[in-house]
Write a structure and sequence with these properties.
Chain lengths: 285, 285, 371, 371
Amino acid sequence: MNTPPISASRALIYAIAVLLAIAYLVPLAVVLLNSVRSAEEIAQTSMIGWPHAWAFGNYTTAWSDFCIAQTCSGIRPYMLNSALVTVPATILSTALGAVAGYAISLWRFRGHAWIFGLVTLGVFLPEQMRLIPWTIVLRDVGLTNTLAGLVMIHTIQGLSFTTLFCRNYYLSIPQDLMKAARIDGAGFFRIFARIVLPLSPPILIVTVIWQFTHIWNEFLYGVTFTTGTQQPVTAALIALSASVADIPQHGVQSAAVTIAALPTLLVYLFGGRYFVRGLTAGAVK
Amino acid sequence: MNTPPISASRALIYAIAVLLAIAYLVPLAVVLLNSVRSAEEIAQTSMIGWPHAWAFGNYTTAWSDFCIAQTCSGIRPYMLNSALVTVPATILSTALGAVAGYAISLWRFRGHAWIFGLVTLGVFLPEQMRLIPWTIVLRDVGLTNTLAGLVMIHTIQGLSFTTLFCRNYYLSIPQDLMKAARIDGAGFFRIFARIVLPLSPPILIVTVIWQFTHIWNEFLYGVTFTTGTQQPVTAALIALSASVADIPQHGVQSAAVTIAALPTLLVYLFGGRYFVRGLTAGAVK
Amino acid sequence: MAALTIRDVHKRFGTTDVLKGVNLEIDSGEFTVIVGPSGCGKSTLLNIIAGLEKPSGGTVAIGDRVVNNVAPKDRDIAMVFQSYALYPSMTVRQNIVFGMECRNVPKPQRAEALARVAKLLQIEPLLDRKPSQLSGGQRQRVAMGRALVRDPLLFLFDEPLSNLDAKLRVEMRMEIKQLHQRIQSTMVYVTHDQIEAMTMATRIAVMHQGEVQQFADPETVYNRPANVFVARFMGAPPMNTLPARLEAVAGGVRAIVGRGEAAVALALPPAFATHAGREVIMGLRPECIAEEHRRFGEDNTGLALEAPVEMSEPTGAETIVLLRIGGERALARVSPDMRPQPGAMGRFSLDMRRVCLFDPKTEALIDSARA
Amino acid sequence: MAALTIRDVHKRFGTTDVLKGVNLEIDSGEFTVIVGPSGCGKSTLLNIIAGLEKPSGGTVAIGDRVVNNVAPKDRDIAMVFQSYALYPSMTVRQNIVFGMECRNVPKPQRAEALARVAKLLQIEPLLDRKPSQLSGGQRQRVAMGRALVRDPLLFLFDEPLSNLDAKLRVEMRMEIKQLHQRIQSTMVYVTHDQIEAMTMATRIAVMHQGEVQQFADPETVYNRPANVFVARFMGAPPMNTLPARLEAVAGGVRAIVGRGEAAVALALPPAFATHAGREVIMGLRPECIAEEHRRFGEDNTGLALEAPVEMSEPTGAETIVLLRIGGERALARVSPDMRPQPGAMGRFSLDMRRVCLFDPKTEALIDSARA
């Protein structure tokens, strides 16, 4: 609306806006600022402050020199591990979720409501409840302490979200399209490949962003099922915290956290808009 | 559609369905079955199996007798802690998110897109990046190792999801309603209270369920910011794991995990349907 | 030869009977319009013909083959949807050939069929566009093209014009009619718009509450409606239906509308004399009540009537007048020159040749003058 | 007294000029209909009057007060929306009194106003229902009630009937008109439906491309349209517009339509003699081309014409005929008895009293016989 809202309302709206801004910008600023301050400076003044001298060295230290649990290669190898887990798990869970969501929403097979109910269970089940079963599965298929094991876990756990997202999105595809395709003689896969998939980019962007962010940031499975050089970066950061418990190294720690958060921040910067848009998008204009 | 789909398609659909069923039902079954098996039975056979004798005693042990880090009161006090954190944080974050989502979606004040961008940042920022800032905040406001501190953290962190959910939902409220209300002479709060809020139950159910589930299941903040008797149940379960590291007590552990998961499972059973429905609901029929 | 035979088709959703025993036999080359208000079951019937829904009972035969258990793609039909149902991500070209692609028609044949249809519908310049780049009328045309590219036994249309604006609807109506005259295929066309039914159909099936009320050519449906529902549904403004008593008089019969002082006697054509003494519902179309001195047809000067006017609505091309005949409300369509004032008496001319009589209880047609 | 004065109002969205200097002066008690195709700016104009959008230039005055900087709630207006915009969670009663509640009107007064409106619109039995429990027509009625419960300087209607089905639309049209006759308030009514404009308005403002094309009473708009756009927009089927040359002949003037052998000469009323020699666009409404022997008005037997028929479309109440006059396509509305065959010659009668002449370049009206 173009006209000015009532002024009391306006004041309130801006109050809410400023509160939100503080809640989300301040933490980011604190970490970023600390990541370029030296440990001494932080120790002498406080954890909040403008850097006196720019200590960019924190980043090189965190990236390649720092020692985490006896290995002194910084967080570089762990970043690679995270990428090797996150990328395949994101792709697999999205692809399977798209097919599952398509089958549930557009084919209405007998029992589709039950299956969908089970899928949403995955949204609610606490991670901790799944630790023991996954321990057994990983041991039985021989993937304990491997990146492949993490890929499997994240793919299957992620299916509940990807299926939910895709199913809800595909619900907006009109049944008339399905009817027309059936009269034209197309089957399950042809309809998916030729009609449904080309309409999917908005929701695929949502699921890819969601899965990437969540798998990248996840650490419970990483800590539990991997050790040493097989750990993803989030798990390594916890080990890093333990390493620096004696001599506080807040600068380097902040730099490491920033580096580890960089992929998801980039996804936010370049994809956040599409994420929000895709959440409310319908399939057909 | 009422007619049978092509048979090859149908086989595939059911294959996907069975896969999903296994992925989500089997872990639940393993934990539930182990929770009623004795430690000896699990040790002698395997982690997967039907109980020979029903060891319901695991539950009473887990609930009130077991020792976690020197305190032998089972997980009961920690369940209470979780409730005292989860309930207020859920209510507060939902209420604030509804107001924020309403302001962003229906009032279109100058800068609303920027504010909304910041809010979605909260969906992407890794938890680990927020640990240090929260440490500082908790120390400065004197809420370190208190449940109130956790309530504050979860309320503010949760705002990003609740605002996102509510904003997307409120977008479907036609601008004509806002125009009519403005001509009728209603302001920001009257429109919210009399028109928007009564339309909100579907999305409020979604945000409440989402917040409850996530806050209840969350443990990183719990582990980091609380110790001993101030811990929520998820953090206590980790301490429990440590306690039983020497003598494996899988039965009791499974029972404790099941009890801890019970609130979210109940939410799923009674609210899951409304959750899914609310995600795709529009505000006005 | 019957191109489509529907025998005793029932459909039940839960506890609702949507179709209660529909029978239709449609000849090859006919343009059949199934018309009725929303909820009358017409779209369900079309979906059953297409095989997109299963009937709860009865049989559907296309040509000589009963198709109850045949998949839609094997029924040799083509369908145009109300929403057009164009595949949004494909170009117009791909939309049109998709069915042939699914059936593995060789490429040269596809190109040939595409070229033929594109020319027929004059959509050549649109072939490389996406549906979202087309106007409503163009989408409708492409949807037609997708159906016409095959040469099926049966074309099915599900309210194909209802998403177009009024002017375009009139144009497309003419075009579809001309198209049918050219290709002479069997077409079944569902609509809620009685004007489309009247102007396009060779035969009209009027449906109401899951049953076919009348199945006949447009002229019969309009002039000899099977019952009061059909009489009032076909035609806008609807037919006036006035309760009346028939009375024998010297040299013929007349209808008494209203009671006591307000009663009006209207002379009927002699053919109605056989019904003298009956209570009836008399149906008279608004265009049969015109201004004084109007001549209906070549030689008929109409029956003069003076009646009180309640309201008059000038539309420019004509004036719709709400009047009272024997206390009963009736609508008249008079010349735009005439603007009778509310409350005044107006002088009208009635075309009694086109009166219909209905039974007050069953509401079925008893007789109409123009057989 | 002017109830609403709009002076040189402009509106620009980005680089698009939606309103290009609109001027309207509306008297107290008038029923003004703003009509035009979608995108002509009519709804934007209404929103500017309501204060829901700000004009980029110009002034809006309600009564004597310039309201450019007055909030909607302080403009003393009431508005009915196309979507009805009923508050979904409130009962009908709450919907109607909400405005008074916001303005802290005392409770007894609220109840009194509610009772008055409920009686006026006959919605008493609906008062405790929610909007979702109402039919389209009932919602429309409640939306009217919400506006009528106040006694504002100005009622604004934004296509209030466009979501109703055809039959209900006709009924509500009559009711709103009767309502206006009873309460005599100033009303501004936006629609894209020319029939609504013709039947309801005391004055019609026809808009096109952000400009008012004509602002006059319905009869003038229909019979003396200011330009070709207005001529073709008002009336359905639209006015026939034929390029013609005027030629003086003994005792008068005639219009030559077409060239060479196909050319047809039509005698015009003597009043047009002053334009002899000009090239014009000749406008003739479809209802002015009827079957042979039709008498237009009391004494006019029309001009006889034989013309080739391209298509005829029987609607039941009449037959629409597509014919060619001097090679130009024209539509005629003839008696339903007549069914000229495509390709044959038909005999028609033309009402030349109602011809309009337009300038071929500017498309503005030059003259019309019936002043």
